[in-house]
Predict the structure.
Amino acid sequence: MRVSTIQLAVEASESADERRRRAAGAVRSRAGDDLVVLPELWTAGAWAYDRWDQDAEPLDGPTAEAMSAAARHAGTWLHAGSIVERDTDGTLYNTALLFDRGGNLRGHYRKIHRYGFDTGEATLMGGGHDIVTVPADFGVIGLAICYDLRFPELFRGLLDAGAELIAVPAAWPAARLAHWRLLTRTRALEEQVFLTACCATGEHGGIEQGGHSTVVDPWGEVLAEAGRDEQVVTADVDMAEVLRIRSALPVLRDRVLGVAPAAGR
């Protein structure tokens, strides 16, 4: 199967509508791909807090409408990155959207780990609570977003829920690019899954984005990696490798759960 990440430039000079049209065109051009992944909060900008309220939308809003049509046109599964979702009670969420080849919304995930340390996303958005996996025609997709990469327990939960490929949209800062490259490989290796991570490029909210979108195999090997410019990165993956590697190196069966610290320590 063929997997692509569309590493979009997210700049303050471009409106959400303009970027939506551009992203839809890029997705439509990926006919023949089996899975396409977009970045985190690419409509408003993950660091452009002042735009979140004006660019917030419901699950069935303009981004979902445009991405559904684009997925259907290309005949691909589409992880449409994430949007600023406004719930019916007014709460904002960082929410990922996954469409099937027919353009049907097959799953959505509200980001559990909110970045900001008492600022930004941590204070302006609600947090999700659900681990989300979605069965596709090529395997089970697990959903996570950006900062989630720093929390291995979520990825172990996705593994336990059947994930064979985990898709991670992001807006990871260039200043911590080394962390991004390390964590994407580590999460794929430790869970023995394919990991497709799409990071924005450009600059918004005063933060330069890291780019370097990547596809990593269950052995922790990088199959494809972008640079810093806007580009599409494509890799051919064999989902049978998940079972092969888990059988050849069956470390997951040796997990020891519920270990408690010794008394008095």
Observations:
- The first strand starts at residue 2 and ends at 7.
- The CA atoms of residues 34 and 137 lie 9 Å apart.
- The two ends are 50 Å apart (CA to CA).
